[in-house]
Design a protein that fits this description.
Pathway: Lipid metabolism. Pfam families: Acetyltransf_5. InterPro entries: Acyl_CoA_acyltransferase, Ornithine_N-alpha-AT. One of its GO terms (molecular function) is acyltransferase activity. The chain has five helices and eleven strands, in the order ββαββββαβαβααβββ. By secondary structure, the chain is of the alpha+beta class. It folds into two domains: about 100 residues, Gcn5-related N-acetyltransferase (GNAT) (Aminopeptidase, 3-Layer(aba) Sandwich); about 100 residues, no CATH class. The longest helix is centred in the first third of the chain and has 18 residues.
């Protein structure tokens, strides 16, 4: 698959050099910007055991000859035995666990700081659409990270998702006990207490895009202490039949 627009090329990473560029970009974003704690922090690359079985979508600046954005795809068809998705470290995916072969997990989304513009962002999602045409799956899942500045902000987002009826309860997905946030701490706001603009200002750019493209979310987020300070992850799910055709 190839999508070309101006100086940008969207494709899958094919060579070891392209994959190393992916890992270096992820290191710059996750370790240097977001303070991800843990292994590989000192080796200038960010990778884990899932990377070997994943496809890596990349956007290249062909003029500068560099990888400027990436998205990781993990198909449930590639999971062996009792292995689960990356997101299953934090969430019990309920009935979706019986349909893993129909699921594509999106992860490790990042864009080089110098290339964070609307064009690159839209091309990243166009790449997702193109991949789905080649390798159809019924569901897209992933973790959408939000900075945990305060529980008030997380409550605000949670109540907004519930009010807009974009909360998925059909699969019984919930945070694993060790990572859950007390549900009582996530309630206490009504829509009258804040504006939509205020909510959007607390969401990450990725979460806003997912919401715009028709994603559903699990109302109970998990806490991710692998970052300093910790962040909050909302489990996100798309029915691919509703994935907007204009991005592919």
């Amino acid at each position: 698959m190839r999508i070309e627009e101006g100086k940008y090329l969207v494709k899958l990473a094919e060579t070891s050099d392209e994959k190393e560029q992916v890992y270096r970009l992820r290191h710059d974003v996750y370790h240097k910007e977001l303070n991800l704690i843990g292994k590989n922090a000192q080796c200038e690359q960010e990778y884990d055991s899932y990377d070997e079985i994943c496809d890596h979508l990349i956007i290249r600046d062909v003029e500068a000859n560099r990888c400027v954005s990436t998205f990781r795809f993990l198909s449930g068809k590639k999971l062996q035995g009792n292995a689960g998705f990356y997101s299953e470290q934090w969430f019990d995916i309920g009935n979706l666990s019986r349909q893993r072969s129909k699921v594509l997990e999106l992860g490790r989304a990042c864009i080089d700081l110098q290339y964070r513009n609307t064009k690159v962002f839209k091309m990243l999602f166009a790449g997702v659409g193109a991949y789905l045409k080649l390798y159809p799956h019924d569901y897209l899942i992933g973790l959408t990270t939000v900075s945990c500045n305060s529980k008030q902000h997380i409550r605000m987002i949670t109540e907004y998702l519930i009010n807009k009826k974009v909360v998925n309860v059909s699969f019984g997905i919930k945070p694993k006990k060790h990572f859950e946030i007390n549900e009582a701490e996530l309630r206490g706001y009504t829509m009258a207490a804040f504006t939509e603009r205020e909510v959007f200002s607390k969401m990450s750019t990725l979460m806003l895009a997912y919401h715009k493209y028709g994603a559903e979310f699990i109302s109970e987020p998990s806490i991710d202490v692998d970052f300093n300070p910790p962040v909050v992850d909302f489990f996100t799910i798309f029915n691919t039949e509703k994935y907007p055709k204009w991005v592919s």
